[in-house]
């Protein structure tokens, strides 16, 4: 059985997917790009504000499933340029506590709407 998770504080889905789905104590959070949830546009200013917006969006989806970013077990970070990983490493401690989640980071050819970063996650709801 699966339950759809919907957050009114995070950007609406821009395709045929749920913001998150919960099943058997695990929440699968769809990839978040740095969309401002009010305007549904990519935040301006480069990689730093985009990283912060992605984590804010993930936090709101996590909260809607009665969780927090500290419940995340695994992150996958997709970057338009792998050099942006340094910025991710600098910003993550403002959103996560140790022990940090397991993480995979990859450079990709392109991301939706020209975003510089996208992050998806797997979270425990127990």
Summarize the structure.
This protein is of the alpha+beta class and 126 residues long.
Folded structure, characterized:
The longest helix is centred in the middle third of the chain and has 18 residues, at 47-64. The mean pLDDT is 97. The chain has a single domain, classed as RutC-like (60s Ribosomal Protein L30, Chain: A, 2-Layer Sandwich). Strand 4 (72-79), helix 2 and strand 5 form a beta-alpha-beta unit. The protein contains two helices and six strands. It has 126 residues and is an alpha+beta fold. The protein is globular and about 40 Å long. The chain has a six-stranded mixed beta sheet with strand order 1-2-3-6-4-5, with helices on one face.
Task: Work out the helicity level.
Answer: 10-25%
Continuous helix count: 2
Helix and strand sequence: EEEHEHEE
- Give the CATH superfamily: RutC-like
Write out the strand line-up for the largest beta sheet, numbering strands in chain order: 1-2-3-6-4-5
